[in-house]
Amino acid sequence: MPLSANRRNCSSSDRAQRRPTQFLRFRRRFVAVERTLVLVKPNGVERGLIGEIIARYERRGLRISALKMLQVDTQLAQEHYAEHVGKPFFGELVAFITSGPIVAMVVEGLAAVQVVRDMNGATDPLKAAPGTIR
After folding, report:
1. Superfamily holding 14-121
2. How far apart (Å, rounded) are the C-alpha atoms in residues 41 and 10?
């Protein structure tokens, strides 16, 4: 499950994004319900943002279908970020994601992937619009 390379409170997995998990009948059409992975990273956990982040997703009509708090070890971090091996930021990225507990959650709903992306904001927190999670 690749994640982006910068420090941010949440991220969304590209691998899980495009797989509809079920279909709902909506106005005589079937609409795909999407799932995506969201991580509240160590800085978000440390700042006590878990509840607010979950509440924001729920207010937008998304559902948290799975949630787990865990401490990522070095091996898991290196596997997770394998696409970044050899890049200058790899060591810092692994050190950051293993620096404290994270919350991993599966968020689902109609157009969940795009809704989560819009809510999270730009990948670079310094470029993220006001009101976004980053």
Report:
1. Nucleoside diphosphate kinase-like domain (3.30.70.141)
2. 6
What's the CA dihedral at 133, 2, 13, 55 to 10 degrees?
Answer: -30
Give the whole-angstrom CA distance, residue 70 versus residue 110.
27
Query: Residue 98 and residue 119: Cα distance in Å, rounded?
Result: 25
pLDDT digits (tens, 9 = 90+) for 50-89: 999 999 999 999 999 999 999 999 999 999 999 999 999 9
Q: Which amino acid is at 60?
A: R
User: Which residue reads 């980053």 in tokens?
Assistant: 134
Domain boundaries, the chain: 14-121
pTM of the predicted protein model: 0.74
Q: Which residue has the tokens 């729920």?
A: 58
Alpha-helical (H) ranges within the chain are 14-17, 42-46, 50-59, 74-80, 90-97, 112-120
Look-up of token digits 């160590």? 42
